[in-house]
Amino acid sequence: MVNRASRWSAADYARNGAFVPALGEAALTLLDPQPGELILDLGCGDGAVTARIAESGARVIGLDSSAEMVEAARGRGIDAFVADAETLGLDGQAERFGRFDAVFSNAALHWMLDPGAVARGVFALLRTGGRFVGEMGGAGNLAALRQGLRDELTARGYHMPESDPQWYASAEAFARVYAEAGFSGIEADLIARPTPLAGGIAPWVTTFRAGTMDIAGVPEAERPAVAAAVESRLSSTLRRPDGNWFADYVRLRFRMKKPGD
Fold first, then answer.
1. Helix axes 115-125, 171-180, angle to 10 degrees
2. With contact defined as beta carbons under 8 Å apart, do 238 and 108 qualify?
3. C-alpha dihedral sign at 192, 194, 195, 197
4. C or N terminus of the chain, fewer CB within 10 Å?
5. Distance between terminal CA atoms of the chain?
6. Tens of pLDDT along 186-242?
7. Residues contacting residue 252 through CB under 8 Å, at least 6 positions apart
8. Rounded mean pLDDT of the chain?
9. Residues 6+ apart with CB under 8 A from 241
10. In this predicted structure, what is the pLDDT of residue 126?
11. Best CA proximity match to 59, nearest among 88, 18, 97, 115
12. Hey, which residues does 177 pair with through a beta bridge?
């Protein structure tokens, strides 16, 4: 089932989230795509990183749960499709897309709330000896930002679920899920990466937590005020002495392979 909190505007993402694909460069280097390979970009978003993979000469297919983001990816010339990553192992998906030399994912897996299903689906789509490489939010990711939004919405009388609808795993928990799916050679590392936000906290909130505010029932007209209030709450935590804002990102970077040659 697609996570209701994972709701995206391609225009807002292009305006306020361009740093996400830009910071995916390290994971892309780890992927090391080769000419002629068939590669899947799982959670391709608007296709910015997918296009970089294609520049290597590999053939790339992008999958994303957001129809609007898939449309944006297609606008870049990407062969992209709407799909639920939790059902990759079902309904003949391997036969539909073929067996991939590699699967790549940047800043997407933490939105997928059945990680075991995702792991089994990726395993099914890879050829023997194929690799899975990428990066996602890890344990402790956005702790201050998430708490600031939760506190503000609670103070305004909105009901918040007991836990946030993202899977920010420890390296150990992540490795365990993928080992159970059959992967070997699993390497997973947490990386603290405070990330500058040129526009401040408010645009981040409206772009990256639109789905969370959907779930809480926040009217569209009130969301700019909520975002501004969250920014005010976090001014002593996520604003540097020089006045520049940052987000308290923690990334989990990984690679593994499907056993074989």
1. 50
2. no
3. positive
4. C
5. 34
6. 999 999 999 999 999 999 999 989 989 998 999 999 999 999 999 999 999 999 999
7. 135, 136, 137, 138, 139, 168, 169, 171, 174, 188, 189, 190, 191
8. 89
9. none
10. 94
11. 97
12. none
The tokens for 91 are 């309904």
DSSP string, the chain: ---TT----HHHHHHH-THHHHTTHHHHHHH---TT-EEEEET-TTSHHHHHHHTTT-EEEEEES-HHHHHHHHHTT-EEEE--GGGTTSTTHHHHH--EEEEEEES-GGG-S-HHHHHHHHHHHEEEEEEEEEEEEBTTTTHHHHHHHHHHHHHTT----SS-SS--B-HHHHHHHHHHTT-EEEEEEEEEEEEEETT-HHHHHHHHSHHHHHHHT--GGGHHHHHHHHHHHTTTTSB-TTS-EEEEEEEEEEEEE-S--
Structure token pair of residue 13: 């993402």
- The pair of structure tokens assigned to 184 is 């070997």
Query: Which pair of tokens denotes residue 36?
Result: 């002629």
Position 163 scores a pLDDT of 80
pLDDT at 103 over 70: yes
Share of the chain above pLDDT 90, in %: 73
What Cα–Cα distance (Å) separates residue 224 from each residue in 120, 207, 221? 40, 11, 7
Enumerate domains of the chain plus CATH numbers. Answer: 10-142+166-198+249-257 (3.40.50.150)
- Tokens 């991939």 sit on residue: 100
The token pair at 30 is 């780890």
Query: Could you tell me which of 107, 113, 61, 114 has the C-alpha nearest to residue 207?
Result: 107
pTM: 0.90
* pLDDT value, residue 9: 58
Average pLDDT over residues 51-61: 95
**Residue type at 205 in one-letter notation:** V
